[in-house]
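Data card: per-record layout.
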Amino acid sequence: MMDHVKLSSLARRIRSYNLYQYWDNNKLVYTEGVHWFADKLKCYWLIDEIGRVIFQKLLAEYFSSFYSIQLLVHADCTAIITVGNENDDTYFEHKINWTDCPIIGEPVSFYLCESEEYYCLMLPSEY
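The structure for this 127-residue chain is written out next.
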């Protein structure tokens, strides 16, 4: 398990033109920045959780071309993924019962944006 990390210690501005196809859904791609984040923190589970649970719920219950997604890990190793829109209105929260993500107490933000025939998961710096 990694030691707890401060988000600011991982801060990095990534501009990317490479997209990764999500393995279970051809309508979801993610950027090099999201790939870097998942690889660096060993939390590919987050991409799976977004791709298999959250993305499906968004398409079924909420229609928008832009979603904000925020991960907040608590000291007890539980986490909440909050999903909303560009106006910071919350659509729903998704509880994670256990995670070893080393960023504790600092929210980590992602955007999910519609782009032609797919949705792209990205870091805010890649928007």
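Known properties of this structure: The chain has one domain: 23-126. The longest strand covers residues 66-73.

See the next section for split statistics.
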